[in-house]
Amino acid sequence: MDRRKFVSVGAASLTILPFLGFASILNNNETPVKPKWLLDLIKMNDEGIKIPAAKKITDPNDHFYGAYVNGFNIPTPHSTAGFIDQACIAIGTPESIYYRSATLLKELEDAFKGILKLQHEDGTIDLVDSNFHSTPDTAFIVKVMAPLYAILKNSNTPGQEKILVLFEQFLKRAGNALATGGIHTPNHRWVVSAALVRVNEQFPDKKYTDRVNQWLNEHIDLDPDGQYTEKSTGGYSAVVDRVLITVSKGMNRPEILDAVRKNIMMMRYYLHPNGEVVTEASNRQDKGQIDRMDPYYYACRFLALKDNNGEMAEMCRMIEKNNFRSLLGSMSYFLSDPGLWKELPASKEIPTSYVKTFPYSGVVRIRRGNWDTTLLTNNAGFMTFHKGNAVLQGIRVAGSFFGKGQFQSAEIKEENGKWIMRNKLDGPYYQPMPADKISPDGDLAKMPRTLREKSNIQNIEYTVIISETGKGMQVDFDIKGTDRVPIVVELIFRRGGTFQGVLQQDKPDIFAFKEQEGIYTVGNDQLHFGPGLGLHTWFQLRGALPHIDNPTVYVTGFTPFKHSMHFS
């Protein structure tokens, strides 16, 4: 594939970098100059380098001498790769105080010797948390490290030759593993593919691109909502966007970028007013976690410049304002693609007032300026409400009904501007086994309950109706069926605020209404909620999900249970 070299000039001298012609956002007659934001990141990278590093194994008799340990004092390739990334950027970047540093180069040599000890003969590395001889975890490291090989090589640092030999050994070993190894999750296909593209940039080999094409034959797993299979808005969606750009460039497949565009344009509607993203529908470990748009920065910047897209430029500026330091994680991307150094196009306002349905994800998003709500199918926490930084993380409702009374709805229906969720449960009893079905040895495993006649059937039917008010949302509960079933509604708040109108009970984080309305205050943001109801104090019903370790306000009653609450 085509590569270009950009030569340093004047005071803002530039590292000579490999550059893919397909990816170039620069005109042929432009000379790239590092912008201030990139120089600031280089300085931040320098500040993170410590010699000697506290996490380095310094005992020359240790088998893993030169490697770096994690927080549990275990030498890991990930900890070691983190230092390698920092050091390569610093040594290979003229604006760094460590540019061509002999001292740092020696530290880098030690680190490579250490990581090679941590790399298996088959080319893989371990994620000591869970995955061993892991192709995907090898890919996560390689996709970042491989571009740095060129940055280090093109710096022409005296004495770099032996480090480059070690670097090449690591990458080629890894390339062999990536070209044959398997994966666990959908996003791993694209991470492995991106890592293969990066290795192929440095050491072209048809086996790398053949393997990428084999994965690409499965097609990109994007649904009509613009969401990837894992729905991991706080984690892997951003990873997939980044690596698909790499694959698109490296394989000269511009059509792959359509998936990235659709995903990021969907993310406009997954933004809370405080810059966080909706994670409650995720299928991965970020489900319900606090995450932001930060990891999407590289993809937003790339497409903002490529497409002259003002909304993506606005998302970049929002990330820069909220958490500029998060950009450090994309340094290898920025340094290896001078096209990203151009000024972003003018911002275009992203949506802040809408009702948006994502049926394939089971999500409804409603936002009105400084507040928003998320409705969720197949989720016990069926609704969230954000008022700036005052956050109701979830509403749950349960009945003490045969040990299975936790409510969740398989669908959300819109009727006359209202959103309706329903669920119905039965609680049967069972008659004696028919005589011809009785096992002579009395073994109940041979007499399943499905063979018994049901009787005395009880039922509970949940209907939750959600609608907009002038200032927020209203939730109407209508729970009926068997009478006198205890009911609990949980209002689960994020930590960090203070309450008015509610009273702490006999356990921490357990609150009940003492007035008709409650107020939750975080900084200058206030979330009003109510009215309350408290007909019993049995807060942890049998069969309901356990209390979440967050401040929770309880509403209690019995069936038939009809109660309306507002959130504003």
Structural descriptors:
globular, disordered N terminus, Beta-galactosidase, Chain A, domain 5, single chain, alpha+beta, 3 domains, 29% helix, 12 helices, 568 residues
How is this structure best described in words?
- There is one protein chain.
- The protein has 568 residues and is α+β, with helices and mostly antiparallel strands.
- The protein has three domains: 35-217, no CATH class; 219-351, no CATH class; 353-567, Beta-galactosidase, Chain A, domain 5.
- The chain contains twelve helices and 21 strands.
- It has helices spanning 36-47, 77-92, 102-118, 135-154, 161-178, 186-202, 206-216, 236-250, 257-267, 297-307, 310-323, 331-335; strands at residues 68-69, 75-76, 125-127, 131-134, 353-358, 363-368, 371-376, 383-387, 390-399, 413-415, 418-430, 454-468, 473-481, 486-493, 498-500, 502-504, 510-513, 518-522, 525-530, 552-558, 561-567.
- The strands form four sheets. Strands 5-6-7-8-9-14-20-17-16 form a nine-stranded mixed beta sheet, with no helix packed on it. Strands 10-11-12-13-21-19-18-15 form an eight-stranded antiparallel beta sheet, with no helix packed on it.
- α3 packs parallel to α5, α6 (186-202) runs parallel beside α8 (236-250) and α10 (297-307) runs antiparallel to α11.
- The chain is globular.
- Mean pLDDT is 93; it is low at 1-25.
